[in-house]
Amino acid sequence: MIDWINFIVLVLSTVLMAHFYIKSIRPAALEKEIGESAYPKCKQYRIIASAFEVVTIVNYLIYYFYPLSIDFPRFLPWEHWIFVIVGFVILIPSLALMFKGLKDAGKESLEPKKEHTLYSGIYDTLRHPQAVGEAFIWLAISFFLNSPFLILYSFLWFSIFYVFCIAEEKDLVIRYGRPYLEYRDRVGFLIPKRKRKK
Q: Nearest to residue 134, comparing CAs of 160, 108, 105?
């Protein structure tokens, strides 16, 4: 019973996190509807999305103790320490990328502000470093928990973060206009662009 309740909450919290996060990255579009109060509203949406993300992490941990009672392997077939190492190999660069993105984006990561300019730092190489880093963190957690089911579920996050990036870019075009379009042509979306030879 606990296993199915946890699974249902996992799916619901994933959906609600995605819903509120997409709402949080549309301040320029929302401003056209409700004015400058759109920016504080988007901050509220981002806090709600973060809360559902925490719930989802808790669901992952509960799943380790209460996996679904279905005909599916509970653990991966090799020693657990192997997957802990794999988890760290994924986690360390993912965290580094995510935190570098957070640092270079500044307060804008948590609180959208109308006066904020385009980012610099790692954003001169990659347009969505936070999304790339965070998407892989879910996979690392799944390897730590040695759960084939959670590894498969974690691939869903790649699609979710891809949708986040597309939605955010639409809003950034509204917000910054031509400078963002030029930036988009110059800098890689999810992987760095190769420098063109002069």
A: 160
Ranges of each domain in the chain: 2-186
Tens-place pLDDT, residues 185-194: 999 998 888 7
**CATH fold group of domain 2-186:** Four Helix Bundle (Hemerythrin (Met), subunit A) (1.20.120)
Closest CA to 116 of 127, 105, 125: 105
Its pTM stands at 0.89
- Please give the single-letter amino acid code of residue 84: V
